[in-house]
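SECTION: protein entry
WANTED: fold as tokens:
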Amino acid sequence: MGFSANRQNIDFTTYKPDSFLWSYEDRVATITLNRPERKNPITFESYAEMRDTFRALQYADEVKAVVVTGAGGNFCSGGDVHEIIGPLVELKNDGRMDKLLEFTQMTGDLIKAMRACPQPIVSAIDGICAGAGACIAMASDMRLGTAASKVAFLFVRVGLCGADMGACNMLPRIIGAGRAAEILYTGRSMSGEEAERWGFYNRLCEPDAVLAEARKLAHGLAHGPTFAHGMTKKAIHQEWAMSVDEAIDFEAEIQAICMQTEDYARAYNAFVAKQRPLFEGN
């Protein structure tokens, strides 16, 4: 069982991954999990390919924002029961702790790659968003959902702890420690209204509009000062481990870097000319 796809030097304007759909238009890429007959579960292959895709996006000048969604009215039902959980039980029975750890590290590497890529990631969520799918949504920068959606971190229901793919670190920061503890201990679903009220969703949309709204949001970001957006994402992520004083010093450094960009000068010149700035991301 191997977990490496190692895709490099990808032309994202014509990219054709094997385990999910990819589209690209006007600086925005869309990843669509595409196994609608089973509510878009993740396989070993799609874990690895998504991880390698997000890693490669660090070097993709043409992609300025990413949308993640699912086909057929659901986001993602988590790890495939037959193609992932069954084989992992076999590894457990064979005493292959090394392979179990290789798998859990690989799933965590997907989340690390999502957080490390400079592009803002917007998830468009309808229907079921569970298990690893909920973690992918969690690792996105913004999440748009529907009232009919259900978000569940289901690990406890299969005898695992809630500490999976960074959930015990990231989910409390999004919805609060007490609420995260309830969700992770019980494995119960957050309704769409609850997810929006608790801050997991940025806002609710109608099911037939959620993807379009996510793309609209991503498009606006993609045509903004994208170098600065990447710095904002870096700061949000890295400052979790900093004191307030350290964060202030770090922000002073990266803001000074942003002041050296052409976009900063473009914004000033546009203001003087009473025009809207046209950012180019440099």
